[in-house]
Design a protein that fits this description.
alpha/beta; D-Maltodextrin-Binding Protein, domain 2; 4 domains; five-stranded mixed beta sheet
Length: 393
């Protein structure tokens, strides 16, 4: 066996030095990304440049392979993260210029579902940390309270889950959007990492009661079906479920939630990765009393609601308008209109800026052929779709 050239302590010391260098270089690259955003203000160029990103990735992959014997997948994963960060950083800079009053707001009062540690709370922290804003947490017991807290002015923003890749749309939130005066001003997609948490390590057969919000119960239904004799109890949020387990302090109860959040309540993870889907993500929307100005240089989404006549082909006619103006629809959701039996309200997300020529023309046509239409918001898109380099296609 070949003896190592360096001792383990020497290797770890060198790794620490390299990690510090990487952090320094990443910081310098971020500063340059901001300079790129400043340059684009002068030139009015869009934030995303797919051709430039494609060329960069191909060059990096070729150099990494020839000079450093690095794998193409390894390089692509790292630089997809770096490019995503650069894009979001530039978007934030341009958005601050478009909304100067918000950029001067160092603290945001944010209403969300559940207590500290809920998935909505984690999403709130992630979203506003990107904007370098501190949070005043306003936890709410249900979605309607989130809406009312913002509408009344007690909160600046509300964060609401709108759909999940496993359990689908969150209908209660869609129904509330029918009647609120609030505007959608942002979005965030968060990975949801469900696990079982309890006061101490225990065999799964010992669990008699399992607490959580109904959505995680649904998203983990396959795992839960394999547990015998377990009673499922619903709570206002995953955080409230963990608080309940902490308060009961029994060795036969557990909760579904995030492992990091469980630690806030003195709980430990006893079983991870229990969701039906490995890739489990929830999309959240951010609502406020006033709409946000969106720079035309960044990718944007527009969300609107509409109702159509009950004649055959009415919905298809509206969708053909979007097709005619080359507007990509990313979401279509129908919900019943309260008080109007058999009538539905359609919620539509499109990848388009509300003030673009195509979107304005489409909205004008849609207003002529729908019974009701209202734009709920135009906001920066959170999903930075990675460019796949030609060498990996």
């Amino acid at each position: 066996m070949t003896e190592p050239q360096y001792s383990l302590d020497e290797i770890r010391l060198r790794l620490n030095e390299l990690d510090d260098q990487l952090l320094s270089l990443l910081s310098e690259r971020r500063e340059l990304s901001t300079e790129v955003a400043k340059s684009k203000v002068q030139t009015s160029k869009p934030v995303r440049d797919a051709a430039r990103e494609q060329q960069l990735l191909v060059k990096l992959i070729n150099n990494g392979k020839e000079k450093y014997q690095l794998d193409a997948n390894y390089i692509t994963k790292i630089f997809h993260t770096i490019i995503e960060d650069s894009v979001l950083l530039q978007q934030t800079y341009l958005q601050n210029l478009a909304n100067p009053s918000q950029s001067r707001q160092p603290v945001a009062r944010v209403a969300f579902l559940g207590s500290k540690g809920s998935y909505s709370h984690l999403a709130s922290r992630e979203y506003f940390s990107r904007k370098n804003m501190s949070l005043v947490d306003l936890n709410c017991e249900h979605f309607k309270e989130v809406i009312k807290t913002v509408e009344s002015g007690h909160a600046d923003y509300g964060v609401l889950p709108i759909e999940n890749t496993s359990s689908g749309s969150i209908n209660e939130v869609y129904d509330l959007l029918q009647h609120t005066t609030l505007h959608i001003v942002g979005e965030l997609t968060q990975p949801i990492e469900h696990c079982l948490v309890a006061t101490k390590e225990m065999p799964l057969e010992q669990i008699k009661v399992l607490y959580s919000h109904p959505q995680p119960h649904q998203q983990c239904s396959e795992f839960l079906s394999r547990l015998d004799g377990v009673t499922l109890e619903s709570c206002a949020s995953t955080a409230d479920a963990m608080k309940k387990v902490q308060q009961l302090s029994r060795d036969d109860v557990a909760a579904i939630g995030h492992a990091a959040s469980g630690k806030l309540y003195g709980l430990q993870s006893i079983k991870g990765n229990i969701a039906n889907q490995t890739e489990n993500h929830t999309r959240f929307i951010v609502v406020a009393r006033k709409p946000v100005e969106v720079s035309t240089q960044i990718p944007a989404k527009t969300t609107f609601i509409m109702s159509t006549s009950q004649q055959a082909g009415s919905l298809v006619e509206t969708l053909l308008v979007l097709q005619r103006y080359n507007i990509n629809m990313t979401k279509l959701e129908s919900r019943p209109i309260m008080g109007n039996p058999w009538e539905e309200m359609f919620y539509v997300d499109v990848e388009a800026h509300k003030d673009s020529d195509n979107m304005q023309s489409a909205l004008q046509e849609l207003m002529k052929i729908t019974k009701y239409l209202k734009v709920l918001g135009c906001y920066p898109t959170d999903n930075v779709k990675p460019v796949i380099p030609d060498v990996m296609a």
